[in-house]
Amino acid sequence: xxxxxxxxxxxxxxxSESHKRGLRFAxxxxxxxxxxxxxxxxxxxxxxxNQDQVLVEAVKRFLLDQAPxxxxxxRVEVFPPSAQFAACSSPRPFFPNRNQRQWGRVSVGVxxxxxxxxxxxxxxxxxxxxxxxxxxxxxxxxxDQGMLTMRKGNLGRLPSGTIRHADEAIGMLTRRTxxxxxxxxxxQLRSVPLVxxxxxxxxxxxxxxxxxxxEGEALEDGxxxxxxxxxxSRREIITGKVIGSGRVAVDF
Length: 252
Hints:
The protein is α+β, with helices and mostly antiparallel strands. Among the domains are: about 130-190, Type Iii Antifreeze Protein Isoform Hplc 12 (Alpha-Beta Complex); about 200-250, SH3 type barrels, CATH 2.30.30. It is built from 1 helix and 12 strands, in the order H-E-E-E-E-E-E-E-E-E-E-E-E. It has one helix at about 10-65; strands spanning about 70-80, 90-95, 105-115, 115-135, 150-155, 175, 190, 200-205, 210-220, 225-230, 235-245, 245-250. The strands form 3 sheets. Strands 1, 2, 3, 4 and 5 form a 5-stranded antiparallel beta sheet that branches. The model is unreliable at about 40-50 (pLDDT under 50).
């Protein structure tokens, strides 16, 4: 039986197949580009969230380490930074202020290697004891144990400068009247003066290989460890530390 010779494919058919393949390739390429474009923000967002979590955990550990050993039921909530920053390498938290309170709403700085510092806010709460007045204490009274009582409560809700240990108040002098039941605070107390204004005091100076002593006039009251100004002559005024009754030390 004679075979029918194969007819060559028409040019239009070949062009149609080529067009379809090109169209499929273009669609695939567009799909890949769309996936990459839509995934990029999500990836960046996840990276930012991970970075925020690193900072939050570092600050949380820092605040827990700073909490007094006698505090109980400590709870720390750290608020992530509101702005986006570059990655923080080796975060090292710190308190921005030397005498900053460690309870309630606090601010914590984070030092980052090779980039600017961050500052985060946190809420710290815990249960512990603090000092209150067992009776009305008049201005100018030297406090003794019988005037104080201890209470227990949420340390995060106490005012700044609250005195937490009785020995920090015993022997101190009240600057103002303290009502019965009120919380004792640092600004209400001062050291019993060992040096008084206009008193002639002994000024002891020491340095490498020498020690001298001379008299001067105290220009203000001061208790143990307080810094006071001393007039040595009409033109010479120095600052020294109270080290005893009528004694002030100056280091060179």
